[in-house]
User: Which sequence fits this backbone?
């Protein structure tokens, strides 16, 4: 079974438990905390992934870092995962939980890449465009890539709209060469 499907199952169970206990928002923040800590501290994920480090020691690391900072429901998943010897997928579980939370809340994350910073008017146009396409509340992440020359690349989930000048120039180049 792939890491993604295993992580998805644990995340689904966690969100259901959080809903049952009425702590979905708190668990969401806890999963963000875990994800941020794992991203900022590569040694944490290396330790959790290491076959040399015993599972009791890994649980000790998780207790030291998170037990006093997260809700008991969140820490329960750390306990269960450690007992099942799957500590290496905790970051994937956190990712899946965040995706499920977004679905639960009706949030659609989108990324727009432009060559210059967006104006308030353009930002609103992108928010409207994504909202009309998905009927969800939009969380727009903005990135700047001067190599685009102009235009934009909009990513919504696994869909992408490439309306950049760089892309148009590449298409023109292929037409001229082909």
Assistant:
């Amino acid at each position: 079974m792939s890491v993604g499907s295993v992580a998805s199952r644990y995340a689904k169970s966690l969100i259901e438990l959080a809903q049952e206990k009425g702590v979905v928002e708190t668990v969401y923040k806890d999963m963000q905390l875990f994800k941020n800590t794992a991203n900022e501290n590569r040694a944490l994920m290396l330790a959790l992934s290491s076959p040399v480090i015993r599972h009791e020691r890994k649980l000790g690391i998780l207790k030291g870092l998170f037990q006093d900072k997260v809700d008991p429901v969140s820490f329960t998943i750390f306990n269960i995962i450690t007992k099942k010897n799957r500590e290496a997928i905790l970051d994937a579980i956190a990712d899946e939980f965040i995706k499920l939370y977004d679905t639960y809340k009706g949030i659609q994350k989108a990324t727009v890449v432009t060559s210059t910073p967006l104006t308030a008017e353009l930002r609103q146009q992108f928010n409207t465009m994504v909202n009309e396409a998905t009927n969800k509340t939009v969380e727009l992440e903005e990135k700047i890539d001067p190599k685009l020359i102009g235009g934009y690349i909009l990513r919504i989930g696994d869909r992408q709209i490439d309306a950049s000048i760089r892309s148009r120039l590449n298409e023109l180049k292929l037409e001229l060469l082909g």
Q: What stands out?
A: DSSP finds eight helices and four strands in the chain. The longest strand covers residues 107-114. The helical segments are 3-21, 24-40, 42-49, 55-66, 72-83, 90-105, 120-134, 165-177.
